[in-house]
Amino acid sequence: MPQLEVVTRYLRSTGLDPAEVIRVDQYQHTLDLSIGSLMLGANPLNAELAQLTELIRTDMASHGVEFAFGRYGEARGSYSGEAFGGASYATNERRTEHLGIDIFCRPGTAVYAPLDSTVELVSNNLSPLDYGPVVVLRHKTSDGQPFYSLYGHLHLASTALLVAGQYIAKGDKFAEVGNEVENGGWTPHLHLQLILDMLQLGADFPGVVYPSQMLIWRQLCPNPALLFPLEDIEHFDASPAPQGLLKRRH
């Protein structure tokens, strides 16, 4: 992806100062939801959604936090639905690798545009364990290179007035986080993803991919913590890039 360096340099540039996507009280509490996680333990049922939701809520309560983060590049065992099965082009593997960052929070939490944006698409993906209500915003660098941010598992009513082509200013609220009934059946959270090329996939753009293809997808979907107001974003990455590669410039 030749535009990877252009977009990452822009997102790290001095003075860009993206608005907070969700106005959290801290960026410290990350959850280990990976295969082999100590939090999930050895019981395979802990990867099932009902038990996983309870474990996440218990963990957040024990740490006294209202917000927690699921990591980018994490291999997870919770993607057990039919949509994540089947063979890839080369191997009989499942989609397990997470391309976004999850922000776990209460349903109804406001979601804001990190940068000046145009609505690329609005959809309600109704299949179980899909995005549910999803919005993609289009942005551009200072030299006109387009890129996108995807927001999954939203509150349906909060997206009702959005239409493709609509302008949204940096810092404007445009959606809310949905609950389990409408968000695809997931523990309430926002799935945030950066995308350099939509590949004409529209609302079916994947948020979870095959392990054998992850190196390619990392080029197409860099760490969305580049949108966070932090210098060091590597602790959001379950398989971090070389030291210092993704630090924001000052």
Q: Which helices and strands appear, and what pairs or packs with what?
A:
Elements lengths: L2 H9 L18 E2 L17 H15 L4 E3 L26 E2 L2 E4 L5 E3 L4 E9 L6 E9 L5 E7 L14 E2 L4 E4 L12 E7 L12 E2 L4 H7 L30
Relative strand content: 15-25%
Number of domain units: 1
What's the CATH first level? Mainly Beta
Based on CA atoms alone, the radius of gyration comes out at: 17 Å
Provide the helix percentage: 10-25%
- What number is the mean pLDDT? 88
Order of helices and strands: HEHEEEEEEEEEEEH
How many separate helices?
A: 3
As residue ranges, the low-confidence spans are 242-250
Strand order of the largest sheet: 1-2-4-11-8-7-6-9
Distance between the termini: 25 Å
Inertia-based shape = globular
Alpha-beta content class: alpha+beta
Largest sheet properties: 8 strands, mixed
Under the CATH scheme, which architecture would be assigned?
A: Distorted Sandwich
Name the CATH superfamily assignment. Answer: Glucose Permease (Domain IIA)
Total beta-strand segments: 12
CATH topology: Glucose Permease (Domain IIA)
